[in-house]
Amino acid sequence: MSKKNFYCNAILTCKDHNDLDKKTIKKYISGINLMENAGKEIFKFIKNKFDKNKKINILCGPGNNGGDGFVVERLLKENNFKNVNLFCTVKKNNLKNDAKLAFEKGSKDIKNISKLHISKNDLIIDSLFGSGLKKNISGKLKKIIKKINLKRPYCISVDLPSGINGDSGEIYGIAIKSNTTITFTKKKPGHLLSPGTDYSGEVLVKNIGIDLNKLFYKAKIFENHPSNWKNDFPWPNNNSHKYKRGFSLIICGDKMTGASRLAARGAARIGCGMICLGVPRKRFDIYSTENPIALIESLDNEKDLKKILKDKRINTVLIGPGLGISEKKFKLIKNVVNKKNRIIVLDADALKNNFKKIISIRKTNIVVTPHDGEFNHMLKALNIKKKNNRIENASNFVKKTKINLILKGNTTIICSVDGRISINKNTSPFLATGGSGDVLAGMVTGLISQKMNIFEAACAAVWIHGEIAKTKGPGLIAEDLTEMIPNILKKLK
Questions:
Q1: Edge-to-edge, what's the strand order for the sheet holding 274-279?
Q2: Which pLDDT value is given to residue 7?
Q3: pLDDT beneath 70, residues of the chain
Q4: Residue 256 shares a structural domain with residue 134
Q5: Under a CB-based contact definition with an 8 Å cutoff, are residues 259 and 268 in contact?
Q6: Which of 178, 216, 224, 230 has the fewest Cβ atoms nearer than 10 Å?
Q7: Looking at residue 371, what is its pLDDT?
Q8: Do 207 and 295 sit in the same domain of this protein?
Q9: In total, how many domains does the chain have?
Q10: Residue 239 zone, left/alpha/beta (φ > 0; ψ -120 to 50; rest)
Q11: Do β-strands 221-223 and 247-251 pair in parallel, antiparallel, or remain unpaired?
């Protein structure tokens, strides 16, 4: 992953933003000039989108977020916008620092926010609270925000919708539901995580003069996008043959046979050259008649596993889809994890069979793919205290276990043992269908088997999986995911 591409999609926490602001102010640009630059970007957006006769209500808090609103108010009036009204949560005498300077450069016409009257035809500039908010919104302001959300005027939020935690996306009691959020330098996690993402609307990122390269910032969190991993994708060349394109073992269950078959097709379609299905003897006929893409081997115990893994070309093992839960399955998972010379992907039932004991055997070159429900059980089993921040929960899990994590959901979080975190918003509600997770597990396994780095492989599989669902839309079933992988790969190539 190149530094350039990494910066293109970097996400900054609230602390990151604050630290970079301070460093920039100390070395390069004054705080009031950063505020001016922010206000100019918001003004440009309004100027290009709205008529000068539009009624515009600017709602300001006492801090820097409010200061941005003061700049916007001044610029609108200087450019002949006819109906601009400024409301603030505090009296002008209580304004401080750069916010006070920004206000004093303007009209000085300020109204108490309690006097705000809203109609659905208004334009609301939400400059109340940014990342500095740490407590629930209550009282009169809560009632005002309720009215705004009820009337649904077009709303532009500055930095964050007021009431949204910039790091977790959680709501501080109530939040403004915005049409557009204009933020600066880079997005925050709260723009991408639920419920914050649902309140942010379209998020526009504007440059106000903070240079990450000059400040020697090393990004750790980024938004998942092909530019981050496309150059690492294992495209075949003229010298490729099937064993050079990876050899995966998928261990199958005896009841939900469709799950592992979907995983196998996902691995094959993403480019894995060879696949072996390790299947229970009593289901051998079922698997052998319906899986022409894979070798079929009997696998019921440790002896069978050893026999299969004598083939050193097998470099990746997936276990969990349709496996079932029992003491016998637990022993099988344990034996698989104990094979330290392979990368192991644990999915579905493999995460439910005494997970704590499983990971005590081995903690390197393992990938787990839980959804939130499974993940919560895993946190409990490991005595990791659950917090309201999914990124923090994911990061704490990886730090404790040294295991790579794909935490699935409407926003999927991918955490690497090296500290990198990817937030994936390229998704679709139509993925909520049986078998879609099995296909994803197979895609991850298939890319890793082709010697793609674990983290990049996970990011690529998750993004492609979501892109297929967005493309297909209503009526999507798991089989569609496997059949459409080639179409998406063609677009990426």
A1: 10-11, 221-223, 421-424, 412-415, 404-407, 366-368, 343-346, 316-319, 247-251, 274-279, 295-298
A2: 65
A3: 1-7
A4: no
A5: no
A6: 216
A7: 97
A8: no
A9: 2
A10: alpha
A11: unpaired
